[in-house]
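User: These chains co-purify. Model them together.
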Amino acid sequence: MKTLGSRCAFLIGFLVGTCTLYVFLRQVWFERTFSTRSQPDGLEKTAAQLRELEEDSKNWKKERSALFNLNHPHHKGEDSHMADELYKKVRILCWVMTGPNNLQKKARHVKNTWSRHCNVVVFMSSVDDPDFPTVGLGTKEGRDQLYWKTIRAFHYALENHGDEADWFLKADDDTYVVVDNLRWVLANHTPEEPIYFGRRFKPYTKQGYMSGGAGYVLSKEALKRFVDGFKTKVCTHTTHVEDLAMGQCMEKVGVVAGDARDTNLRETFHPFVPEQHLTSKFPKSFWYWSYCYYPISEGPNCCSDLSVSFHYVDASLMYLLEYYTYHLRAFGYRYRYQPPAPLGYKNEAWDRSEGGHSYSKEQPAIPRGPLARVESPSRTDRKPVVMPPAAAGEKDPPAAAQDDKQ
Amino acid sequence: MLSEGSSFMKGIALGGTFCLLLSLLGSFTPGMQSSPEDHHHHHHHIKAPTKDELQSLSDSQMVELSQRVRVYCVIMVQPSVLVYWSTAKDTWGKHCDNAVFYSSESAKALEAVDLNEQDEWAKLRKALKHAYDNAGDLRWFFVARSTTFAIIENLKYLVLAKDPNEPFYIGHAMKSGELEYVEYQSGIVLSYEALKRLVNVFKDEDKCPERGRALWKLSEEKQLAICLKYTGVFAENGEDIQGKRLFNSKSVGSLIQDSMDKKNLDVVEGCCSDLAITFSGMSPNQMQVMMFGVYRLRPYGHNFHDSLIFLPPEGSDND
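Assistant: Joint model of the two components:
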């Protein structure tokens, strides 16, 4: 028989229990983040995947073991008419050196990232794979096969795609290439010139040769001479050291080793990852010091703003570089390096504006006058306001940002 | 006595179970006692102005906005890890209108305000008070540890159309029970008005004690939120036009890796915002790479005609 005291005790205990647990739960359990985006559920995800595959087929045409670019990536809100023009005029076939064991580990990430900016992409392997797709070169795999694969790959490219491109790039499946910047480097040359570009090394050859890992690109004339060289036996399989052998052949057939550095003489093709070039102090005994044709710069001067390639890039760095290059930016930032437009690429849309900026060799002026936007030609953008630069430790209020102070 | 004791214990057990059940059912919302100033806050999300919104402003309005959006960076450093101080100074700190470093103690070669304080909350209070007193005509305050990397231009863009004479407390907003607070690790943004109210409530030892009196010590980010809440300032989540986080508490490398692990079809799209403001936990070398990636590396021929132009800082070579 419960006494009154017992009942009271029970009630008090009940209240104490409730309150204690409530406080405990509030502190520990109810922690959550604000989020406007919810994780898509299973069904939504499948639908999204199907949409992506559909998108993919709109962007690529798979034909004859190559991927033909139908619609290279564009960004919302950007004005890419210059890049689009170069895309049409400087057609690049990218061939990627890979192998059957590396398709899922490495080549797949190349396919997902930078190769989408090429006009044509061909993945070269020892074995045919119609799904990926890869071309089977009929060689074995291994370091000693590298020059054989290269010889056959270039022959294949000229024979099957000679009319579909002006320039022919060789890259490894751990090379990251900024194809838009490659077009800028090449735009001041013609495919009829016997010339090739890359990261120039100096030993063993008179004019130097291009580092294999950093990628190198041949003009159509250079490619023709390469293939002819093998027909006439001027060039043969001398060594498996692919980049050196390539350089020796190029020299024999009269193809010029080009200077790919930007107008500030900064290198564009890089044999290592950005972190190493930007922050490492290579030991003086390292081979790199004696190999580079041009003087080496350490620190920020190592690398052009319009860098073309990096090497030893693993899967996650591929995506990170794609994010840095094509996605992440500082709003409104006016880059220090203002590259000149390639010769003959006068920008009609810009010229239309009064006081317009000439995009020839000199640095273009900071935009003045109404800017004509290409996407909606009827609307003109108001001229942007220029913020004065932050000067370290400045305590006085800066002069007001005047739009005419340019 | 024994029967009462056992009744009491039974009561506790039953009460606890009751509470747990209700919470699990979700119908039990632990409500905080509402104070008169606790108006229902509708706008928890902050987004940058759209291009159209900026285009619709007049020239003079645009100039006014640009003059107003200048940032005082409060950067907390540890003398034991000097390299983060020098890295922040050499990288993103250069893009602040004024970058001031605050340290728990003085150290040789470290140029920082010595707070002479080890307690995290007390350090934050002192640093914020110092920033308020030395703001000059800067009206936005960004608080971060030196292990965080910030893209200040994107921060300015986020708050471009916001009036710093209104209270703003922005970052990655989290919720702990009923308390909404901004995560410290990914950076905290305060408008002048918010900081002014905060410095004022610092004087109130009941609402905003310098040494916490709770049974278990609250983190400094939560204490900050509580003090601000008393002054009517609430946490808001900074996000981009697609709703992606702008303030990240992880490094860009681990966010990319997360996106890869989730097997997103587009790893980069599924990772991070194009106009991200902060990343945290990156090594000094990775921060230098980010400087290159943000302020230099780009694909030729792609242009964004932004309505505001930020010029590069003077005397710098990595941006």
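Residues 35-40, 348-379, 392-406 of chain A have pLDDT under 50 and may be disordered.
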